[in-house]
Amino acid sequence: MIIEKLPLLVALAFQTMVDNKQVSLYTLHNGDITMQVTNFGARVVSLFTPDRTGKYEDVVLGYPDIESYLHNRGERFLGCVVGRYANRIADGKFTLESKEYNLPLNSGGQTLHGGIRGFDNIVWNVDSVSESQIVFSYTAADGEEGFPGALHVVMTYSLSDSNEFKITYKATSDQTTVVNLSHHSFFNLRGEGNGSVASHILTLNAGHITAVNGFLIPTGELMPVENTPFDFRSPHAIGERINENHEQLRFGSGYDHNWVLDCKSIDEPAATVYEPESGRELLVFTDQPGIQFYSGNHFYGTAQGKYGKLHNRRESFALETQKFPDSPNHPDFPSTTLKAGETYQHTCIYKFNTK
Length: 355
What we know:
By secondary structure, the chain is mainly β. The protein has helices at 66-71, 247-252; strands at 16-18, 21-23, 25-30, 33-38, 43-50, 56-58, 80-82, 88-89, 93-96, 99-102, 111-112, 125-129, 133-140, 151-159, 164-173, 177-178, 182-184, 201-204, 206-212, 218-224, 236-237, 256-261, 271-274, 280-286, 290-294, 318-322, 337-338, 344-354.
């Protein structure tokens, strides 16, 4: 691919200062993928892949300039890393080693994706960058957003010659804390702004979800997906059953749930999404126990993307590899506790094919 075929690469406005740190835009390329990333929230701003005929589209949602990311708070999490705790913590409270911690509330009385100023609002350090890889780092202070421990995170984005976007996370803390990091790109395999994702065909390697209450907080029940609209063990269109009369769909205004993965290893796909019109296919691999599938239910057509098109409801989806929501308050869930001297590790791979 000739990168010059992608005029957007020279059109985005990202050179600025935030919190007295330089914000920049970086372009990575390998295989058939060209990806742009900014160190503000370690966001993926654009990701170009070909369809079955070789035509390129940008398949992630984003904005054309840094000001839009700074001020479009209703669509805060486009393309970013989320943490220190991805997903929700009930009432913003948890107890760790007999001490209760209280976090800022930023979502219906809950703490979502790390709080008011999570990792998505940080200007990350760029430790190194090459044609196909960028390494970010950040140290969150003890007490930042209410979490204990100074947490040092090193996160690597790399593109392989086999069209894989690989994310690796490593984190250490100077005292016991909780950690759950994830990536929050919104995808449309037809291209950003090119219509509904209802006809995208989804497969999820999971026999249960963590059932939630009306605040999207897990009840503790691992609900079997069999005979429900949540059964994607065989392929189904995203929109096929999304409006069925099911309590969990009502709570989420569609799909916004954590699936309990049945993968035996990272070599087994956790999720596959196929878009029949373009032939693009996305496979997700991870070493984590859960994946949050979100069907873009809360986009209201009020924000404009990179190509002058509005971000509309259910015109994108997210697949966030993770540990379970609210795990610090559920001892039976996979632990998110990280002790001093231990290392948190997490790998997520988004692989692009055509067929």
